[in-house]
Amino acid sequence: MLPALELENAAVRLGGRLVWSRVGLIVTEGEFVAILGPNGAGKSTLLKSLLGVVPLSEGTATVFGSPVRRGNDEVGYLPQRRRFDPDLRIRAVDLVRLGLDGERWGLSLPSAAKSKRVAETVELVGATAYQNRPIGDLSGGEQQRILIAQALVSGARMLALDEPLESLDLSNQQAISELIRGICRARGVTVLLVAHDVNPILPFIDRVVYVAGGRVLSGKPEDVIRTETLTALYGTPVEVLHTSDGRIVVVGQYEPVTHHPDDH
Amino acid sequence: MPDQGPSWDVVADVQLLLQFHFMQNALLAGTLVALLAGVAGYFVVLRGQSFAAHMLSQVGFPGAAAGVLIHASPVLGLIVFCAGAALGIGALGREVDAGHRRESAAIGSILAFSLGLGFLFVRLYGGSAQGIYAFLFGSILGITDSDVELTLAVALTTMASLAAVGRPLVFASVDPDVAQARGVPVRLLSLAFLLVLALSVAITVQIVGTLLIFALLVAPAASALQLTARVGRGIALSVALALAFTWLGLSLAYFTNLPVGFLITSLAFAFYVAVRIVKARSAMVAWS
Predict the structure, then answer these.
(1) Span B51-97, pLDDT tens digits
(2) I need a surface site. Which of A35, A214, B49, B167 has the fewest CB within 10 A?
(3) CB-CB neighbors (< 8 A) of B178 in chain A
(4) What is the pTM of this model?
(5) Which residue of A has its CA nearest to B182?
(6) Nearest in space to A10 (alpha carbons), one of A78, A65, A67, A64
(7) How far apart are CA A235 and CA A224, in angstroms?
(8) How many separate helices (H) and strands (E) can be counted in chain A?
(9) What count of other Cβ atoms lies within 10 Å of the Cβ of residue A238?
(10) A94 to B178: CB separation less than 8 angstroms, yes or no
């Protein structure tokens, strides 16, 4: 079986700066992968390179066997953002519909098949009750459900989610994590999820990809999130602590002073 | 102006309105500008570019003055200045996260400079204030048949262009990052929209004046977006409101002798304020 995602000797340069290099990564179809690492390490850049938005300076990247490209229906994207502007006056369901055919030129004619597909996807994420409200009126958790529907609606077999749990309260973090896990398990959708904190998703993930110090390391969470492994990756002492309630805390984490344009 | 005032007999009133050729032309040109501005204005307000629309409707002033000064056509000057300004802010790009701060600062700077230039050109020409007055407030009651034809061509071209790019333009306006990943040329569209807007404003502004264009580009769409979050209905409502304000304004001007520009902007403003008050009240009810 072809891997869902394959990176070979990949590197990205942004504005002359080498973000990461010599990256080799294989993700199997249906895996739930967390992408972790400090601010500015290039986690968002990794997702954008898979979407064809940021070009590789070296190496190759393939998604379901084809080279990465913009506008691939098989990959759904949820970008990093705080919230939609409260004054943005467009219905949530219209935003989902844009994920299906928003890139096409010409007038949007009514289509029963497309409306049905949008309705089914909205129902899958549990957003039917508020689909007709303006997106700016919705809560953070409701907005994330709509955005997941938008990412899925084109028939995506892979979801690239950039910090979908950021700025959500704990119960919403859990609900959204469970929703994503459900989509991953029930539909065999491969999930790549960038997170600041691994704990809310720790029970669900198959693998972590750790981006730090210009390198990328992947493996099972218990193998990667270890004091020795991360110290080697960061190139500076890091300690992994386990709290009594099963949470993992990485301390002494190297946070670069320079600000990365993708991680604000 | 008419010897008879308006009555409650609508048919008779319409007959009165249409008895003069200048009123027929004013209504025709006004209708076309309202159609154009109603559609384009929806995108202006959705994209948060009211200030850019303001700039584009004013920036042609030094262009027209320069055209007169060098004995070229004022329209040519208008087009050069409007397109130049559109390219200038388009080239800067828009950072949605930055709340459009960069764009609005650039617009403010361009606008001030262009008005300064206009002042210089008028001084150099030694012209009267009459030309400036006509440019700012228009002379909708002095529109010729060829003006109407030109407005028709511009309105049709603009609406056809917007129909062709409307869907990806909405996508790029509300969700630029996803739109880009889905293959929408976001920056190119942003530039193309400003250029289409600039060209249609440049040509219509000399016919109906800055004031009318700007009023119809923002207020009807702003009201429409408050009333509906559906894209199709929003555009239709924006057009309907622009048409209603224009027709009503022209009719009232005909019967009262008050300036057309004042009447149309007042109607648009009053409606917008009423919509905001109703929305604020219903939000307060929902809170309590």
Answers:
(1) 999 999 888 888 888 888 888 778 888 889 999 999 988 877 665 54
(2) A214
(3) 77-79, 98-99, 150-151
(4) 0.91
(5) A71
(6) A67
(7) 15
(8) 7, 12
(9) 21
(10) no
